[in-house]
Amino acid sequence: MMDPSEINNFEDQWRKAFQEASETPPQSVWEGIEAHLDKDDKSTIVPLWWQSPKLWYAAASIAAILLVGAGFWFSKSGESYKKMDTEIAANKMPQQKKDSNKAPTDQTVKSEEENKVLAVSPGVTTDSFVKPENKTNKNNERAAFRNSSQSFLAKNTSGNKKSEAAVDESQKIINPSSISDSERSLLAATDANDSVPEIAGQQTLVSSQALAALPYNDLEVHFQKRYIFFRPESNSEESVKPVKHKEYWAGLGLMPASFNPDLKIKEAPLAFTSNFVSNRKSVSGSSQPGASYAIQTQGGMRLSKHWSVELGVSYLQGNSSYEGGGYVLSAKNYKSANVLENALADLAPNANTPSNSYDFINGGSTYIDVSKTVSNNYQYLQLPVQAGFTINPDKKLSYSVLGGMMANFFLSNDLESASGEIITTTASDDIYRSVNWSATTGLRFNYRLSSKWKANLTGSYQKAVSSGFRSNQSLDLHPVLYGVSWGVRYSF
Amino acid sequence: MNFNEKDLVNGCKQRNRAAQKQLYDVFGGKLFAICLRYTKNRADAEDVLQDAFIKIYENIDSFRNDSPLEYWLRSVVVNTALNHLRQQKYLKDLDDIDMHHNGIADREITLGNFQMQQLLELIRELPTGCQTIFNLYAIEGYQHNEIAQKLGISEGTSKSQYARARSLLQQKLNKEKRFDDGSVRNKQL
């Protein structure tokens, strides 16, 4: 026999040797743990979605539609109970069809399918069928576990490391031979601290049993609801679909553009009608596009999977130049005026504008045939209304084809005069139409940055469908714009 | 490292990643040493440590501050190691060993001259059953009846396996003449 004091000495030495033992684990261990934790975090995001008010609104509206639809349906037919089942079990119809063919022998079918389950998964599933009381026992044990781990913690404060605890469940999984022994000794003594990881293992066991039992439950559901297959399709399912795709967004963009007002002088202004050359030459000028830009805001609504509608407010700075036409020089006061300013002056309802033709007609004037280029810039406030059809709507990169109308509210026009001054015409001068309509079309590339944000690039073409002047007898204005808009949008 | 154990646990309960990392940094080394004792190679020990920390983070809510944190962490690691051994079927056939006296006198030994790595190597050279029971009894301080419960074996098996482990360790120490004479041969882990 060994001396007990010697044994203690032996063990104490080993214990002492390893008491403070430490070895730095490699970096890869923490990386593995972190990867697992990240995975857990991601999976917990899903329930958070259910906390968002938006989803509750959607759920509430679906429920309301279903309720209204169901009420409508009941009032129509009167077979209310059967109809309700139809809606609930709509997605299980194909399987029910199969079952319905076997209606007279349903009990036989059921037992046959149970046998199939037994044959396919002889493991845990078999246990749940053969020994149904087994599951109940384990549930009891699990409850005992929880109680015991709590009581342990209470007892541990007073220095007592032991407590009454339930059987180590995980041992049963690994060692099937010990199951019966350990079940009999439900309240065996063990270190209750051990129960923490073992509870985790036990939960896995319980949940796997629940999974294994699922096919059996499914069979029951099919059997009970088989008769409803012959009900006509409910309309309420279809009415829910538009709700699913409804989405609102707001966007902001900047569009560098090429703007051409396509301004034409159709007949010579009064001051230019005095001789043949000026009369002919004055209408030969043309507009050249200039570098322009538009600042765009927009709001949109997704109507269905592919279709959407959007409204916007944009500020357009349309720069252009006008070349040719020559100018006239007044003999009376040496005032000069180019063809465009003179033409505009003719359109003005009040005759007090600086380039009024009467100065040139009454006092006599000289026409100077010089092809000079003058700047002619416009500012518009645009309100587009467009419909969009989107391809790949839920993919990272989607494409939209846009088309619609645009109301252009005239703000001002800056025209360079013959003397180099800028003549500003505003909406209150009643020369330009306050609203000018144009058609617009475009192609947009959407790139999804996140679930809420998208970046987009839109190629746009706008063409006026009506003249920009109140009177289009002598002057015509049909602006055309090509632009590429860079923008972002936020979905709600 | 300075840390407040209570704050650390609360941080982990709130799934705070910084707190989780700090817990790992503070206790990872000691717990890895335990994993090394229960396994045969570093790769297995790393697997056990990783699994143990995942369990620790998942079950931290069940830890109450009225018991020492390190004690709880160690018990989780030991149980994880035992689960690992069970999964690898290392603990499948643990039988009673008919011990006969090996003729080696039960001399008083001093392990003070040995480095931890050398002692660890001696433990890892034991058969898995002996290694596990030696760890549980001699170092963790469990009683044989507790070990029997944990491993699903009889108390007698636990005792005989331990006696075998003790005997083998003494043989190894004797063979390498490591008794008290200070002639320690450095051995790489």
TrEMBL record, chain B:
It comes from the Bacteria. Keywords: Sigma factor, Transcription, Transcription regulation. The keyword Zinc-finger does not apply. The lineage of its organism: Bacteria, Pseudomonadati, Bacteroidota, Cytophagia, Cytophagales. Residues 117-168 form the RNA polymerase sigma factor 70 region 4 type domain. GO terms for molecular function: DNA binding; sigma factor activity. Residues 23-89 form the RNA polymerase sigma-70 region domain. SUPFAM superfamilies: Sigma2 domain of RNA polymerase sigma factors (SSF88946), Sigma3 and sigma4 domains of RNA polymerase sigma factors (SSF88659). This is RNA polymerase sigma factor.
